[in-house]
Design the sequence.
């Protein structure tokens, strides 16, 4: 049996770039049982602050998990099936956006890419309040991932 190339670790810069180019990943939180809970999430990566932000509603099970145990990880697939990045750290859950245009609502609005900004900003901020939205901020203290250089 022939041994193929080994996966190569990605540099911190390459991992940050990968996080910045993707929009969806799998967020892993820890259940009270100690088992993982995983869910696909849209996210926003702030490379300078080393923070991943997620928008969700206050009643989601991942929010309860993070309030009990803040350890979390985000797995992001690279451009092919052989590459990935993982961002690990502790997460904090914001307060619920309670007044249209409050700090949490503005943070949620800031997570939207410029091309997808809502035309009716006031209506959007009101919707965030009605949905009881929060921001999950994953403060990344460890990045890792690999790529495998093969053809085909």
Sequence:
């Amino acid at each position: 049996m022939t041994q193929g190339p080994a996966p190569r670790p990605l540099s911190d810069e390459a991992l940050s770039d990968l996080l910045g180019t993707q929009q969806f990943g799998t967020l892993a939180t820890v259940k009270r049982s100690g088992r993982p809970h995983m869910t696909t999430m849209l996210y926003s990566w702030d490379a300078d602050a080393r923070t991943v932000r997620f928008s969700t509603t206050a009643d989601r099970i991942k929010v309860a998990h993070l309030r009990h145990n803040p350890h979390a990880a985000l797995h992001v697939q690279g451009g092919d099936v052989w590459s990935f990045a993982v961002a690990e750290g502790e997460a904090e859950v914001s307060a619920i956006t309670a007044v249209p245009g409050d700090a949490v609502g503005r943070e949620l609005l800031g997570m939207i890419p410029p091309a997808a900004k809502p035309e009716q900003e006031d209506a959007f901020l009101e919707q965030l309040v009605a949905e009881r939205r929060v921001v999950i901020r994953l403060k990344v203290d460890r990045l890792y991932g690999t790529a495998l250089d093969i053809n085909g």
